[in-house]
Amino acid sequence: MNITFTKNFQRAFGTFPLKGDTLSAAIAAALTVGYRAFDTAQWYGNEADTGTALKASGIARRDLCITTKVSPQNLAAGTFLSSVEASLKALQIDKVDILLIHWPPADGAIDEPLRLLQQAYERGLTAHIGISNFTVAMMRRAKEIVNAPIVTNQVEFHPLLDQSKLLAAASETGIPLSSYCSVARGEVFKHKIFEEIGAGYGKSAAQIVLRWILQKGVTINTMSTKPENIKANYDVMDFTLSSIDMARIDAMTKTNYRIVTKALVPIAPDFD
Q: Of these residues, 35, 44, 180, 257, which one is catalytic?
């Protein structure tokens, strides 16, 4: 993983659930403020729109970091690689920068999908590979199965959810975490502590939350359709939270507010 890739991967623009003109406008705004990493998925149904918007931007392909994810229905040998090829066609690229398994199979049988993920890597369909929504046990198994660097486990991560077990597993396995639902779909704004801490830094509550995630060693995915919020979400690299404020926010993880449950995604594993 080169230095440019690492820098660009710290802040990615998420595209779910955007489509069409709304997605195109959001991507244009994101590119304007500096985003170069973009996250999509087969499941989102917007790979083609994402590809069109990025191509129309005129930004050189080498300066972009594009992530997509293989849907649960495409994890078998008969569909995995062909689905990735379809994703590349939709995105109008020869190779994706990061390819993830979006969800582990409902039965927890991850070995075959992991081997297929490595095949995609070996065939040059992706520059890097990763996983998403994997538990601690699954992270350990992935490390055993895959004979290539696993660059991320993309999971729900925000200061209202205790993900200390996954953070420990990230350190143990060398598989870094990246966040989705980074501001808990707005739930963090119901807690005044983030606004109060932000006042001391001249930053918004959302910027405090995102900075906390980064200082936990986790990269961030954020989505907005409002240009001012897109810019604010990107502008989180010019300050550092003190150890005292980090600890105050750490204490909020005891809230244990989880968005992605089996009620929302029935195939979700039993999270740690």
A: 44
